[in-house]
Amino acid sequence: MNLIVGSYLKLEYGAAEALKQAFDIINWWKWHLVPFSWLLAEMDHPLALLTGCLTRWGSQVAALIRLLQFKEAMQVVLGRRKQEILDMLAKKEQRTRASDLFHLAQSDYFWLQLADMIQKLLPVRIAVRVLEADSARLDDVLEQFGRLANHFSYSTLMTHSLEKRWFKMDHKLFLLAYVLHPARHLQHINPKLEFAYTTSLAQYAKEMYQRLFPCTAEEGTAVYKQMAVYLAKGGAFSSSIPEYQDSKENPDTFWCLMTQPFPHLTKLADHLFTIAVNSAAVDRLFSDFGNIQTQRRSSLVHDRVHKLATIKSMLPRKPRSKAKAAGGKYLSRQTTRASKLSGDAAQAALAKAARQTQQQYVDGPEDIIVDRQQMDDLVQEYQEQVEEDEADDADFAAIPGVKRCRLSDLFVDMPAFDMDLLFEDDLGSDSEDD
Length: 434
What we know:
Layout: H1 2-11, H2 15-30, H3 33-41, H4 57-69, H5 71-87, H6 92-105, H7 108-131, H8 138-151, H9 156-167, H10 171-179, H11 198-212, H12 217-231, H13 242-247, H14 251-257, H15 263-273, H16 280-292, H17 302-314, H18 322-325, H19 338-341, H20 343-354, H21 358-363, H22 372-397, H23 407-410
């Protein structure tokens, strides 16, 4: 996902420069406390400007959202006290730099570009939240890639960036994991795609079973038949059976019930759903070890540290927000004041940015100089790379036994990202840490 963000900043013209300008503005106000106090006085809910961590781009998105909440207050203060603030600065270089940043903060083009960038990166943030969870599975990976392909369908270059990464993945493995989730089944899978025909999926299940487990030809045939019954929702997979409806949201429970009637397919599903898709859990475990064995507890033996970390991993983690502590899994916009999360001005700016066309951003206002030649050279360079990659993909797809499909062809009617799957810190809301 970090590579996808990197591709966006590289391919979306002006995104990287806008990100740098935004953090220049944040840092200037944080280091000048008197002007910042005037800024807070103009806000209904005083907030703190956030500084994104360089190695955690998700925190940078939160910092951009928080900056967007300061838009109206910043423009009011600069409209009234701009010259007074400049007179407070001693050196000419400081005044020149501050004047450039103030001109930028008073430009509607900058705020629209910032809001547009936030709107395009928030879905990637949701995908990261899902895939960094301890419970993330292969089917979650494919679903998030499908949602991102739908989200970035407006950009040919971003679509190719996603397809390029998807092409290097084991398509059969991820597709089987997605289909074997009882709640997903064939939902949003393109029925006209030969790669995803029911007969093809049954054959993939047979091949995957033979690839993972030493088995006889009869067992492979049994997997093929069981997969065909599952895809047709026949026998024990019938949707009219209460156990099917009660357990389909939890694949572990569902396939546990199917152990007796369909042992081979259950064995395959259990194996696919236990494959780790990230190293986030390991990173959290190392952090837990560091929090347990501190300098004041350096005499703890390894066995006891391991036991304490095991107990801590079994306990529920501290809620990320008060709404989540009250029982909600995620922070819902319906349970939190909209003005507290983003402010009316931020919401309006986001909505307005969504209506801006790409050509409007290329043209820009009169006071913004856009190097069209630089942009054309960048697009031309990347299109040449696209053609080279497509040639390599064609050569690879021609290898016997290798089957691939495009991500954009695999799904139909894939829903958009649910913005309610964001935590408070994703939206830059005020918390106890502020």
